[in-house]
């Protein structure tokens, strides 16, 4: 088919009463069934609305903050999909797997692909020198069932966040794909998105059309809020991206979406209530073949051609999420300015509808290794609103703005081809259809931006530099 209907469900997970305590297998299953009751409602509704596939969140069936022992009763031994198995019709073929059986039946009974995140366990012994002392590997795992309930994909998360002490790393990254009549799919989980393997391999080498992305994502402004970063990854990598987040406002977890390469088709961000939400939208099955497919981008072309920047005494430093940026203030209502850090030169042309006295914007550059919660090399050019008119607040999280821009054009001399374009309006709103990336690397407003701007950012990841 040329198009398909995608669904993602943001789920307010029912958490175990004390995730640090070990419960019986019966109590573990009872909690998982409560979550699956809600997921089943969403799956039925999605199927009724014609969806071909639905994604549910990471940790969506049992929650988080477990110890290694406490999560054990929640785990099932998930076979390799090669075994060709429909748990719904053949539940006793392997060791008891009530969660796989129920998920498989939800897919089969509703004729829809179902994507879920659960825990896998694999026993091992001393013949394996890496076998953990408790005699088992435990993996954070995504599973996919096709519309007949067959297990078609199993993916073990490779980039665990802050080590996720309850889980093991798989020995090698797994690039998991499967084919459907509505395109080729790849799958990875949450923190994986910041690294080359398996995320970039799936898109750049295995050429998937759509990425399935269960996540439990804590939002961090100004660049790493879920809807902002995940939609930017879809655009930068030129794939469809189905992001299903958990919903827990205390943990700043909200933000799910159905993203196409040219912008969001549907998204949900809600820090006001504890409601989950089903999103449904139509996507191209093969977005690269679509006439709307954005062109390949030469990211540093434009910025390399403009006047080089000369450090100015008014430039200053500030931290954004532990990284030291170099900033320059936008002092005029319109203009063209540059800022540099190391090899990265960032260039901005802009026009504000009016220059307000009570809001300050800066252009910032960062070229360096981010070292908090994992190491990853970044090159970032950003236009952003400061928290107050005091320049020492520039880089602190800001959600709202009142300044409207008539136009913006942002570019940088990136050393990497992996650059994710972000535009975030006031109140954590995206700007689908209102901006684009030109093939010379400029991120430009297509029309006059309709809402006040919080940030316009080119977020570059330079994977080769992570370990230098
Ligand atoms: N479950 C996960 O793997 C969560 C990782 C996503 C967190 C993103 S990536 C780095 C930022 N730090 C946060 O606290 N949230 C952001």
From TrEMBL:
Keywords, sorted A to Z: Glycoprotein, Hydrolase, Signal
Active site per the UniProt annotation: 58 (proton acceptor), 157 (proton donor), 190 (nucleophile)
InterPro entries per UniProt: Biotinidase-like_euk, Biotinidase/VNN, C-N_Hydrolase, C-N_Hydrolase_sf, Vanin_C
Domain CN hydrolase span(s) in chain numbering: 14-285
One Gene Ontology molecular-function label: pantetheine hydrolase activity
GO BP term, example: pantothenate metabolic process
Matches recorded under Gene3D superfamilies: Carbon-nitrogen hydrolase
The family this protein is said to belong to: Belongs to the carbon-nitrogen hydrolase superfamily. BTD/VNN family.
Protein name: CN hydrolase domain-containing protein
Protein species of origin: Anas zonorhyncha
């Amino acid at each position: 088919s040329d198009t398909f209907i995608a669904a993602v469900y943001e789920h307010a997970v029912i958490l175990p009463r004390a995730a640090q305590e070990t419960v019986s297998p019966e109590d573990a299953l009872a909690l998982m069934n409560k979550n699956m009751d809600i997921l089943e409602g969403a799956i039925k509704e999605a199927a009724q609305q014609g969806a071909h596939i639905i994604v549910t969140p990471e940790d969506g069936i049992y929650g988080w903050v477990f110890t290694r022992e406490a999560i054990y009763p929640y785990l099932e031994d998930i076979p390799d999909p090669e075994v060709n198995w429909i748990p719904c019709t053949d539940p006793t073929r392997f060791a008891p797997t009530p969660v796989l059986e129920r998920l498989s039946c939800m897919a089969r009974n509703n004729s829809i692909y179902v994507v879920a995140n659960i825990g896998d366990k694999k026993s091992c012994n001393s013949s394996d020198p890496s076998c953990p002392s408790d005699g088992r590997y435990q993996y954070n795992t995504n599973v996919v069932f096709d519309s007949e309930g067959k297990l078609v994909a199993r993916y073990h998360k490779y980039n665990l966040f802050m080590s996720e002490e309850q889980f093991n790393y798989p020995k090698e990254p797994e690039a998991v794909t499967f084919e459907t009549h509505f395109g080729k799919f790849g799958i990875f989980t949450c923190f994986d998105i910041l690294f080359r393997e398996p995320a970039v391999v799936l898109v750049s080498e295995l050429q998937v059309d759509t990425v399935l992305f269960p996540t439990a994502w804590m939002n961090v402004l100004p660049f790493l809020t879920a809807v902002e970063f995940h939609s930017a990854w879809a655009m930068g990598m030129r794939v469809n991206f189905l992001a299903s987040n958990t919903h827990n406002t205390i943990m700043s977890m909200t933000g799910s979406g159905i993203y196409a390469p040219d912008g969001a088709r549907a998204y949900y961000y809600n820090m006001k209530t504890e409601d989950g939400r089903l999103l449904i939208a139509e996507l191209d099955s093969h977005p690269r073949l679509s006439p709307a497919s954005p062109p390949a981008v030469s990211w540093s072309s434009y910025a390399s051609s403009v006047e080089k920047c000369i450090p100015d005494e008014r430039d200053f430093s500030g931290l954004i999420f532990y990284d030291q940026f170099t900033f320059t203030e936008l002092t005029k209502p319109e203009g063209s300015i540059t800022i540099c850090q190391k090899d990265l030169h960032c260039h901005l042309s802009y026009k504000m509808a009016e220059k307000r006295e009570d809001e300050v914007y800066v252009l910032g550059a960062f070229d360096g290794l981010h070292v908090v919660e994992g190491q990853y090399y970044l090159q970032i050019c950003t236009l952003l609103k400061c928290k107050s008119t005091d320049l020492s607040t520039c880089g602190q999280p800001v959600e709202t703005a009142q300044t409207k821009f008539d136009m913006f054009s942002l570019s940088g001399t990136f050393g990497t081809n992996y650059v994710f374009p972000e535009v975030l309006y006031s109140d954590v709103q995206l700007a689908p259809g209102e901006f684009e990336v030109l093939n010379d690397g400029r991120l430009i407003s297509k029309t006059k931006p309709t809402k006040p701007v919080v940030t316009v950012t080119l977020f570059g990841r330079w994977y080769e530099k992570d370990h230098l």
